[in-house]
Amino acid sequence: MPMRVISYDGASYKQQLLDKKLRNHYPVATLVLYFGTDEKWSVAKRLYECFEIPEKLKPFVNNYKINVFDIAWLSEKTIGMFKSDFKLIAEYFRTKRLHKKYKGSKEKLQHANETLKMFSALTGDDSFEKAYNKSNFAAGGVTMCDVVEQIRAEGKAEGKAEGKSELIMNLIKAKAGTLEQIASWLKLSVSEIKKIAEKIPEPVQL
Known about the structure:
- The chain has helices at residues 2-18, 76-79, 86-97, 112-123, 127-133, 137-140, 144-173, 179-186, 190-197, and strands at 31-34, 67-70.
- By secondary structure, the chain is mostly helical.
């Protein structure tokens, strides 16, 4: 990472040098945000840690240092100082690191769509983004608490649907009744029962 950051910073400075319209150059500060929850950043933070450097060369090689922030390990007080939606992301990873149940903040998101997309990207779980897209949150503002509740509600609904599908398959396999009877018992349409029946591996007489 120190070698990568050097290239990022160098590219920025090079762009400044090539910009003929730029009157004053400006310093570049690159921040590395680490979202690990099992342990803090444990690899190289300085260039010297990336490879072996002979002692005679060290006076001539800059020991480039990177700025790493362990987001999940920030204190509650530090996280509370954030003014943007990033505060909610930091809260989520801190809660995950502490192995606590995430309930979500009641603060309204300033940029809901963008923040929830970031949640999905950082966690690898697209349920955050899906919950936002399937709801009417945008009309009256949204909080992470709202999003979490939406995700849980959808999870319960999917669980019930899966359970009902399994029940229907078992009834059909056991020849407990006709498709019309099963549909009547479960208060579903015959077409819904047929769709589930078609997913059964064994041939089923419809």
